[in-house]
Design brief:
heterodimer, A: 527 residues, mainly alpha, two-stranded antiparallel ribbon, 25 helices, globular, B: 543 residues, alpha/beta, five-stranded mixed beta sheet, 27 helices, 62% helix
């Protein structure tokens, strides 16, 4: 327990505890879900659990489908009702069985939450609550890393809160996506490398790297900076004290610490062989099944969507083939500037983290800066190379959540440096309030915002104007209410959805302002 | 290297600074030679790769360039007059050294050879340019590597296109200008002018470079030495630098009777642009924003958006780096000349650029975006040097993007050559000619301006073709086609095909020829056998 407390910089009563309790409270109010332990058939019977409920999009249903299949059917292959639940993000393995289109590990991680929730009569809520738990953990890690880099407790907590509630991380902490778990592994690795320099800490890092790939395959790229840092512990080069020599130190026994990476990878390969039909056959490269016929056969197209797979979509998919440099320009635009996903629109406050990186450069903390900047830029570039930078129907740029975590650390550094600057604090406050306002909308309403390029088609189909920015969430709030569990089971009798929204925004801003005021009253210290 | 002892679970080696300095000195001494050697090997490999898959001749223009060079040395009326108008002559002149050989002609190597030389030269110049700016070895190698691993550069250097020769001459001109600014020795100014002159004989981008560098020289010398000195320096620079322009105007006057025939003649870009404007497909004309946007996209697709982004940061840092002499920083402005030229040309309607998704569903001239590649490489090399603490992440990310560039085969210039408007698959009609006209006697009447790619792809000797450049042969064949042309290749009902335009009302054509077949780009007509008796099948001596 003491180790746990020390890891996260807790003392008896500290900003760490405050941050944890505060985050838990906000997520209590924001978490999506419905009471009940529905079966797959019940979930397919109405839209209550799907488009109108907590599993509104297919990536969520796809991962939940595997979770459900493992727990309820004790099988990695989908029964027909479960397969229908997962469409259109469903795959067909070489044996003709329906399987998950997603990397499997998230579904396994959610098992404890699902079980606990089921015992309490809310299985879906239990699963989603696991994600919220990781989200809270991420905030604590952002804080802990910032503390390690010299930020004070208040600045570190504010950086964590900015990440957690001022970015799309908030919306994806209340739903069933893998982002927070990936970020947890990233932040844990960074913290472990910063904090310890032992055989076991290195083993932990390699284990986390190994786990990241079956969690979400592109993590193999995101973890490259971490892996290189870990390898640098095994072979390092330093200048001599007098500057007349360089010494290279190799600690070959540390190589054995890397062996542990084999464990999760072997399990991943076992899953691939068993389910997908090949050791290196990734789930995402299997043929996609957008719909299932009445008699249970896989269809090439969804008759309800009036779309047919293009010939190029029928070609064999490769893991690398999803990433093309020709997409970078459009990807950067989408992630940074676009009205439907752009960072400038959804979380402008997080860009202040760049100033923190500049400060780390000036303070010559090059090693950790290269890793933080490396993870951020690899994330941005990788998902700019991706053919679907929008992330399908989504709220904000969900793919950049790992980068937002790194920038959250940067915000802590910047806040510590300029805590006496009224201009900087004023700008930060304004952007923070705006960003929290936007992202709270996403957290308590819906993540189903279409990309701008699909809007015209939607308007033609629906015959009415379709919004595609967070204005859509505002519209949802007024027309359909909130998907928050707390709102749906009790708060809706006490206040309107809009009032509930403002309540949450006020809660987050007021809670954060406590840290801000404390920060402004601190004396200056040197990083 | 000294093994200094064993730590528990570890080993330690010491390397003295002297040893490291020695290694560094080795690379400093031999860096240029190393770059030259490596780039030469890469160049040859790339050429062989694109030769083996046939992409080296995908561009319609590449085949035309080769044919122009070939016509100088072989044909019914060989000679330097075959260099023609519109396209500037230097690359064609260089080709004449080897294009008399059929393999050099039909493999494209006669033209690609000079692109390859220019590729190596440009890489070396990037290395030297960065060295002159005080950039360390790593930054220099990164700059060269960024240039040399760009798939669009590797492709174009394997073709008989003119881009690489232009890049080489322009980069050399800017490099020597930099040396003049930093070392203040007159020979460097003259060398810069010499390479500007060469560039003015490759493409019209070089003419803008002449103007741009002249203005830079006037401004800087006026500021430091007064008006009189700036005037003198300008005259010195422009006399040599502009000599190529003078020669070209003289050439057009002597051969075509009009010094501006290249600009306003029937085959000029101006005429082409007028046709496009009237068809409504010249949207950038008169629109600065659209011109800049179109060129920006071309630039991003050619250089890769991430490298471009780093280049922008690098250029900004360079201009504000007080550790570099102001004169040197001023000289690097010349690296932006291609950017200004291309946007201006689009704005004035002198250039046309199609970007798929932005201006329709096809590509055209998207390779113009490659003109800034040496500049981007220099700025990125500088950035890697300057941001010393971030070198691992910068180099790592460049490698990361490079990996995906190769894995996704992202070369927009190849797309333009394969599926864009720069390609012309004339395999069928050329194949017909090779099979049917090849073994038989008789001339083929054809418009080289419209169908150079057919001439090239047929594999037949140039002397089998009567075209616009064959003077009295063409005039006679238009008047009496049945006496001169056993076959006629035209785009029926298209007045842009000069042979069709001149022949369509001719009795001799319509009555005495049979249309053999219709193909995507042209139709083939053959003389009816009853008229073979009057057919001339041999060249006329004295013509």
């Amino acid at each position: 327990m003491n180790v746990f407390l020390k890891v996260f910089g807790f003392s008896r009563i500290s900003s760490g505890w405050l941050l944890l309790c505060f985050s838990a409270l906000v997520f209590l109010f924001a978490l999506r879900g419905l009471p009940g332990n529905p079966t797959a058939e019940e979930m397919m019977a109405t839209e209550t659990w799907r488009s109108e409920g907590p599993l509104e999009l297919s990536p969520e249903r796809g991962r939940f489908a595997l979770l459900y299949s493992i727990v309820e059917d004790e099988s990695l292959f989908f029964s027909l009702p479960v397969a229908r639940l997962a469409t259109p993000d469903l795959a067909l393995n070489p044996e003709g069985k329906f399987v998950s289109l997603f990397a499997p590990f998230l579904s396994f991680i959610l098992i404890p939450g699902y079980f606990t929730g089921k015992l309490l009569g809310a299985s879906v809520v239990g699963a989603i609550a696991m994600i919220a738990l990781f989200a809270a953990g991420n905030a604590l890690f952002v804080r802990a890393i910032a503390l390690r880099l010299g930020a004070g407790r208040n600045a570190a907590s504010l950086g964590a809160l900015t990440f957690l509630f001022g970015t799309p991380a908030f919306a994806y902490g209340t739903t069933l996506y893998q982002h927070h778990v990936s970020v947890f592994l990233l932040l844990f690795s960074v913290y472990a490398l910063l904090r310890w320099n032992t055989f076991w800490s290195l083993s932990l890092v390699f284990l986390l790297i190994g786990i990241s790939v079956p969690l979400d395959n592109p993590n193999a790229f995101l973890f490259i900076p971490i892996a290189l840092w870990a390898l640098a512990r095994i072979v390092s080069v330093k200048a001599g004290e007098s500057g007349d020599a360089f010494s290279m130190t190799a600690r070959p026994l540390l190589l054995f610490s890397g062996l542990i990476v084999v464990v999760p990878l072997l399990l991943f390969m076992w899953y691939n062989v068993t389910v997908n039909g090949g050791v290196l056959q990734l789930s995402g490269t299997l043929p996609n099944v957008p719909a299932i016929s009445e008699n249970g056969l896989a269809l090439d197209s969804d008759p309800n969507q009036h779309t047919e797979k293009k010939p190029e979509e029928r070609e064999e998919k490769t893991a690398i083939g999803f990433f093309e440099t020709r997409n970078i320009l459009n990807g950067l635009y989408v992630h940074l500037v676009s009205p439907d996903r752009g960072t400038l629109r959804y979380t402008p406050v997080i860009l202040l983290g760049i100033f923190g990186f500049v400060l780390l450069y000036r303070k010559k903390k090059f090693l950790v800066l290269n890793v933080l900047a490396g993870v951020s830029l690899v994330t941005l570039l990788l998902y700019s190379l991706w053919g679907d930078p929008w992330g399908g129907w989504a709220f904000g740029s969900r793919y950049l959540i790992p980068a937002y975590a790194m920038l959250g650390i940067g915000i802590s550094i910047a806040l510590e440096e300029w805590k006496k600057s009224r201009v900087f604090l004023g700008v930060f406050c304004a952007l923070f309030v705006y960003s929290v306002g936007v992202n709270t909308l996403g957290a308590i309403t819906s993540s189903a915002n279409p990309p701008q390029i699909q809007v015209l088609e939607l308007e033609a189909l629906s015959g009415k104007e379709q919004k595609y920015t967070f204005a859509r969430n505002w519209q949802y709030l007024h027309e359909s209410g909130s998907k928050s569990l707390a709102y749906q089971i009790g708060m809706n009798r006490r206040m309107s959805a809009e009032a509930y929204y403002w309540f949450l925004v006020t809660l987050v801003v007021a809670g954060s302002s406590g840290f801000l005021v404390s920060l402004a009253r601190e004396k200056n210290r040197t990083l | 290297m000294k093994f200094s002892g064993k730590q528990f679970f570890g080993f330690q080696w010491s390397i003295s600074r002297e040893r490291i300095d020695g290694v560094r000195a080795f690379f400093e001494r031999h860096g240029t030679a190393i770059v030259m050697s490596v780039l030469s090997a890469v160049s040859v490999w790339a050429f062989l790769h694109y030769y083996s898959n046939g992409l080296g001749l995908a561009y319609n223009d590449a085949r035309s360039h080769l044919d122009i060079g070939r016509r100088v040395v072989e044909g019914l009326r060989p000679g330097f007059a075959q260099l023609g108008s519109v396209w500037l002559p230097l690359t064609h002149l260089l080709m004449t050294l080897t294009i008399w050989n059929d393999f050099m002609w039909h493999s494209g190597l006669a033209g690609a050879l000079w692109s390859m030389v220019a590729f190596v030269g440009t890489g070396v110049l990037i290395f030297l340019f960065l060295r002159e700016l005080g950039v360390g070895l790593l930054g220099r190698f990164v700059g060269v590597a960024l240039f040399a691993t760009n798939l669009n550069i590797l492709y174009l250097q394997s073709t008989a296109m003119t881009e690489l020769v232009l890049l080489g001459t322009m980069t050399a001109a800017v490099y020597f200008l930099l040396l003049w600014y930093t070392r203040k020795k007159l020979p460097f100014l003259l060398l810069s002018a010499l390479f500007v002159m060469f560039s003015t004989l490759v493409r019209y981008d070089g003419w803008f470079l002449l103007f741009f560098l002249s203005m830079m020289i006037v401004v800087s010398v006026w500021k430091s030495g007064g008006y009189v000195k700036s005037e003198g320096t300008f005259v010195l620079f422009a006399t040599l630098g502009g000599f190529g322009v003078f020669l070209w105007l003289l050439w057009n006057l002597l051969i075509f009777g009009d010094p501006l025939f290249f600009a306003f003649g029937p085959y000029s870009a101006h005429t082409q642009q007028l046709d496009l404007a009237s068809a409504g497909v010249l949207p950038t004309k008169g629109d600065w924003l659209l011109s800049a946007k179109m060129y920006f996209y071309a630039l991003a697709y050619n250089t890769n958006a991430f490298a471009l982004f780093l280049g922008v940061i690098g250029s900004a840092l360079l201009f504000f780096d007080r550790r570099i002499a102001p004169r040197a920083r001023f000289a690097t402005l010349a690296l932006f000349a291609p950017l200004f030229f291309n946007i201006l040309a689009l704005y004035l309607g002198h250039s046309v650029l199609f970007i798929q998704g932005l201006s329709g569903d096809t590509w055209f001239n998207v390779r113009y975006g490659i003109m800034m590649m040496p500049s981007v490489a220099i700025f990125v090399g500088y950035l890697v040097h300057r941001a010393a603490g971030l070198r691992p992440v910068l180099v790592g990310l460049l490698l990361f993007v490079l990996f995906f560039q190769f894995s996704s085969h992202d070369a927009v210039t190849i797309d333009d050559g394969r599926v864009g408007s720069s390609q012309k698959n004339v395999t069928e009609v050329a194949g017909w000619l090779a099979k049917n006209a090849g073994p038989r006697e008789g001339f083929i009447l054809i418009s080289a301006a419209s169908h150079d790619s057919i001439i090239f792809s047929s594999g037949l000797p140039m002397s089998r073709f009567i075209h616009e450049g064959t003077g009295p042969y063409y005039a006679s064949a238009i008047e009496n086609p049945d006496r001169w042309a056993r076959w006629i290749v035209v785009r029926t009902n298209s007045d842009s095909d000069s042979t069709w335009r001149l022949l369509k009302d001719s009795f001799g054509f319509l009555d005495r020829y049979t249309k053999v077949d219709s193909y995507p780009f042209a139709d083939v007509y053959e003389l009816k056998p009853e008229y073979f008796g009057g057919l001339i099948t041999e060249p006329v001596s004295g013509w």
